[in-house]
Design goal:
By secondary structure, the protein is α/β, with parallel strands linked by helices. The chain has two domains: about 1-125, ATPase, nucleotide binding domain (Nucleotidyltransferase, domain 5, 2-Layer Sandwich), CATH 3.30.420; about 180-380, ATPase, nucleotide binding domain (Nucleotidyltransferase, domain 5, 2-Layer Sandwich). Helices cover about 40% and strands about 15% of the residues. The strands form two sheets. Strands 3-2-1-4-6-5 form a six-stranded mixed beta sheet, with helices on both faces. A six-stranded mixed beta sheet has the order 9-8-7-10-12-11, sandwiched between helices. The longest helix is centred in the C-terminal third of the chain and has 25 residues, at about 290-315. The protein is globular and about 55 Å long. About 45% of the residues are buried.
Length: about 400
């Protein structure tokens, strides 16, 4: 079974092709993408031409499904057929996720036009958070606001779900790994009597970042809220911000709401703090040259990461594993060390040699006496999307 995973941006189209054998094992057979996309139909044609030329698929008939890592839908979550209901749900929250929802809605439509016989599946980033306690999802807003959809949804769900599965495997808890793998089909299944809990704090640090607390394979809290603009400072998005700041700057700087929104989503985050760029590599390079603003941006990021790790540590009542994933988390030993500094009393201690040696690969970086394992697990969101696409298609037969 061949599953194409489509990752759609406002001007980009990236893809990965997975091949599943009869036992359900997946192999990545191709990946690629295009930038500065203005015509998704052409990008899809180019993708198929590329796959055909490489001998991976002879025609559209060799594709058995297309999976989409959709972000946020009004009234829809989980892993579902990418039909008109999904397109309407994406459009219903386009103002909350303007960089994500319109491209996915358009991409799904174009795939339907270009490949009408190939089933389409949407795995929402919010799916992993369906079972969070209600208190973890609610804002203290009037009921009408909540009824309109103002609540904490959480994002990076595919990444955190992969961490839930893989960390359990690495810690020898196949019972929890299987519970996490089956989550979208069966919900949180009962644990065996007397089973030890498994508490994991997952840190997805990349172009956008979030921290999620996971108990026994299920999310119990997360740093992102109503939109992907919340939580830690993002690449060029503000992260957490007191709501009073919006009317204040509108009045004080004489800015219209649309301009405030633009600045919060385009000129804030690491970019706004540092002035050196929205990529942590550029920010760190500027800081190394003595740029005070860039150094402050790094310190703000570290402070926010520690804040959210602390919140999940308390909510979980401790942790058995602290996991770093995504580009920043996988490739920056210095940031991992700063985030974990002086946490020995809380059971979290790094081995400096192991930490410094590990970049972009899976492994353990905790010290010998650390009560919690500190792990680096490379992100694999597309694999989760492909797996769930297969399960959704099989369940619909």
């Amino acid at each position: 079974m061949n599953i194409l995973v489509a990752n759609l941006g406002s001007t980009s189209f990236k893809f990965r092709l997975f091949r599943f054998d009869g036992a359900g094992n997946a192999a990545l057979v191709a990946k690629g993408g295009y930038e500065r996309v203005t015509d998704y139909g052409k990008a899809i044609d180019d993708c198929l031409t590329e796959l055909q030329a490489a001998g991976h698929v002879r025609s559209a008939a060799d594709l058995h499904g297309v999976g989409f890592k959709t972000v946020l839908g009004r009234g829809v979550t989980g892993c579902v057929p990418a039909d008109d209901r999904v397109i309407q749900a994406l459009d219903g929250f386009r103002e909350i996720a303007p960089a994500h929802n319109p491209p996915y809605a358009l991409g799904i439509q174009r795939f339907r036009e270009k490949l009408p016989a190939v089933p389409r599946v949407a795995l929402f980033e919010t799916a992993f958070y369906q079972w969070m306690p209600e208190a973890a999802t609610r804002y203290a807003v009037p009921p009408a606001w909540h009824d309109a959809g103002v609540r904490r949804y959480g994002f990076h769900g595919a990444s955190h779900k992969f961490v839930a599965e893989r960390s359990a495997e690495l810690l020898g808890r196949e019972d929890i790994a299987e519970r996490a793998r089956r989550l979208y089909q069966a919900g949180p299944t009962p644990l065996a009597a007397g089973a030890r809990p498994l508490r994991v704090i997952s840190c997805h640090f990349g172009g956008s970042s979030s921290v999620t607390g996971i108990r026994d394979g299920v999310a119990i809290g997360t740093s992102m809220g109503l939109s992907p603009q919340s939580g830690l400072p993002q690449n060029n998005r503000v992260g957490d911000l007191d709501s009073a700041a919006v009317p204040f700057v509108m009045k004080t700087l004489n800015l219209p709401l649309a301009e405030v929104e633009r600045q919060m989503t385009k000129e804030a985050g690491l970019l706004g703090l540092s002035g050196a760029g929205n990529d942590m590599r550029d920010v760190k390079a500027a800081a190394a040259r003595g740029d005070a603003r860039a150094q402050l941006a790094v310190e703000v990021f570290i402070h926010s990461a520690r804040h959210w790790i602390g919140a999940m540590l308390v909510e979980l009542g401790g942790c058995d594993a602290l996991v770093f994933t995504a580009g920043i988390g996988e490739n920056n030993p210095d940031l991992r060390a700063a985030i974990c500094a002086n946490l020995g009393e809380l059971g979290i201690a790094l081995d400096p040699v192991r930490n410094e040696a590990l970049r972009g690969a899976e492994g353990e970086i905790s010290a010998a006496g650390s009560r919690a394992k500190v792990l680096v697990i490379p992100a694999n969101e597309e694999l989760v999307v492909a797996r769930e696409t297969v399960r959704c298609l099989q369940a619909g037969r």
